[in-house]
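Inverse folding, one chain.
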């Protein structure tokens, strides 16, 4: 498929106590939270909206990390700092965390999710101090986005 015709997807990385938040769509696939941007909607706005719709988390900060092109989507990947109690909502049937996901569920991680999480590890290793500072400021002051 030509890159031009691939859907534009906003993809969220949200780190929690038990790892990166993951959503089970109920379609035999586990993904990072996110989804397609609506017409006229930026992918940043879509990331914030989709996170709230799928997990009930409220974003307090979001930064662009990198672009990733999968077989079916053109992803803009964002690192979001959010608060609230994660609850599966909308098209998310269940939530998991990368550090504690059961083996049978880990086998259902999409190839794009695996690749994006690997690329994030590299970015995180390079910029951990920036991510920590952002998290501390946002969560200390509960800055609204």
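Residues assigned per position:
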């Amino acid at each position: 498929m030509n890159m031009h015709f691939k859907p534009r997807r906003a993809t969220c990385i949200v780190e929690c106590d038990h790892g990166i938040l993951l959503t089970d769509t109920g379609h035999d696939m586990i993904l990072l939270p996110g989804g397609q941007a609506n017409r006229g909607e930026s992918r940043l706005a879509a990331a914030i909206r989709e996170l709230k719709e799928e997990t009930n988390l409220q974003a307090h900060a979001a930064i662009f990390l990198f672009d990733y092109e999968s077989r079916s989507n053109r992803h803009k990947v964002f690192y979001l700092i959010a608060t609230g109690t994660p609850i599966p909502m909308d098209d998310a049937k269940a939530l998991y965390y990368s550090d504690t996901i059961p083996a049978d569920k880990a086998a259902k991680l999409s190839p794009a999710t695996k690749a994006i999480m690997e690329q994030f590890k590299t970015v995180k290793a390079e910029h951990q101090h920036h991510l920590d500072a952002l998290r501390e400021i946002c969560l200390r002051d509960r800055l609204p986005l």
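The two ends are 36 Å apart (CA to CA). The first strand starts at residue 8 and ends at 13.
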